[in-house]
Amino acid sequence: MRMLTRLLLVAILCLPFLVVAETVSQRGAVVAPTCVTCHGPEGRSQGAIPSLTALSSADIMTALQAFRAETRPSTVMHRIAKGLDDADITAVATYFASLPRH
To answer: For residue 73, what are the CA distances in angstroms to 25, 34, 35, 60, 76?
Structure first.
C-alpha cells in the first residue's frame, strides 16, 4: 500500500510538468509552418538550407536568438526571428527537436 501511495504521489507531482511540455510542443507546432517554407516539410531540407531535425533544440534556440539579435548573418532569418519572442523560440526548438532526426 505504501508503494502504491508513493507512486501516485510521484505521478501527481509530475503531471504539471507533462502538461507544460505538451503545451510547449503544441505552441511549436503552431509556429513551425513559418519554418517549413524554406527548411522543408517537417523541417527536413533537401537543399543547402539546414534541416532543423538535424539540430538539437539548444542549437535551434541559439541560432534563432542570434538571428533575432542580428549577430548571425542572414538574408531572411533576421526578419523572421524578430517576430518570435523567447517562448516562441523555445517552443519551435522543442517541436523540431521532438521530430525524428533526419
So the answer is: 28, 19, 17, 15, 9
